[in-house]
């Protein structure tokens, strides 16, 4: 479900951001719901083909047993095959997690050192305050995350039927 990038972003923020920056649970639940729809959208054709192939010559008198077998044996294989060939969501999640962790570490350091630290903070080799350099990295990371999500929204046919939802953080 991480292949729906808005969900990957919110989940990473929930797992790695500090409290004031964590997304609302309701936003994550909504994104999770959309991620399920995205997953179904992605495997729908495969699911229909495998369903037809599996049930094509089956008789209906053992339908409950046949359904259980399909759900427990065929459906997990469909999902595993999909995840083997479409694992970019996990990669995006890990990338976003690292960006969010970096931002959280920066905020924690600023809070730990207090406001008096800003006047005496270390400088870079070119005498730029370290906080300015970190903020540039954070801004670039956030812009990259937004670009990844916008890129998916512009190229994935799923978004034609389900436009991106404007979450509070996005």
Key descriptive features of the protein:
170 residues; mainly alpha; 0% strand; elongated
Topology diagram in text:
Elements: H1 5-16, H2 25-55, H3 63-85, H4 88-113, H5 117-120, H6 130-155, H7 158-161
Give structural notes:
The longest helix is centred in the N-terminal third of the chain and has 31 residues. Helix 1 packs across helix 2, helix 1 packs parallel to helix 4 and helix 2 packs across helix 3. The chain is elongated. It is about 75% helix and about 0% strand. The protein is built from 7 helices and no strands. The mean pLDDT is about 90. It has about 170 residues and is mostly helical. The two termini are about 20 Å apart.
Q: How large is the radius of gyration? A: 22 Å
Mean pLDDT: 88
What portion of residues belong to β-strands?
A: under 5%
Order of helices and strands: HHHHHHH
In short:
By secondary structure, the protein is mainly α.
